[in-house]
Amino acid sequence: MVGSEDYDIRVFREDQLIAEMQETETIISICPLIGARFGYALANGTVGIYERTNRNWRIKSRNIAVVLQAFDVDGDGVDELVTGWSSGKVSLAFCFFVVAFSSQHEMI
Fold first, then answer.
1. How far apart are CA 52 and CA 35, in angstroms?
2. With the C-alpha atoms ordered 104, 97, 65, 70, is the resulting torsion angle positive or negative?
3. How many angstroms separate the Cα of 83 from the Cα of each of 16, 79, 100?
4. Which entry of 69, 74, 83, 94 is 20 to 30 Å from 30 by CA?
5. pLDDT in tens, the chain (108 residues)
6. Does the CA dihedral 13-15-18-23 come out positive or negative?
7. What is the 3-state secondary structure (H, E, C) of the chain?
8. Does residue 30 contact residue 23 with C-beta atoms inside 8 Å?
9. Which of 34, 25, 39, 27 minimizes the C-alpha distance to 93?
10. Which domains occur in the chain, in start order?
């Protein structure tokens, strides 16, 4: 799976293109989640989650996502999508697409 500067997320099996999703801005990060889900971040501040080729959730921010990480925050065996923002804010989205926690800390 790769993100391109021409706003596409492309999925390859070996060297064959098997799926392509069009986005609205340059893809800056992709993060695998459980099953066929993955999180993504765009250069315009959008963060979202796809399941296969279907976009299930997205949110737009005035800030830019600087890190996406899958982590089981609540210990239920399912990774949540943790996003670190350019503002210092950290947000958490469960795989059923609810932003459950948001916190802002000063950058040191």
1. 9
2. positive
3. 31, 13, 12
4. 74
5. 999 889 999 999 999 999 999 999 999 999 998 888 899 999 999 999 999 999 988 889 999 999 999 988 888 888 889 999 999 888 877 655 444 445 555 544
6. positive
7. CEECCCCEEEEEECCEEEEEEECCCCEEEEEECCCCEEEEEECCCEEEEEECCEEEEEEECCCCEEEEEEECCCCCCCCEEEEEECCCEEEEECCCCCEEEEEECCCC
8. no
9. 39
10. 2-104 (2.40.10.480)
Q: Are strands 8-13 and 54-60 parallel, antiparallel or unpaired?
A: unpaired
**Tokens 């796809």, located at residue:** 50
- Tokens encoding 11: 């999925």
Q: Where are the alpha helices (DSSP H) in 1-108?
A: none
Token pair belonging to 44: 């315009």
Structure tokens at 5: 């500067």
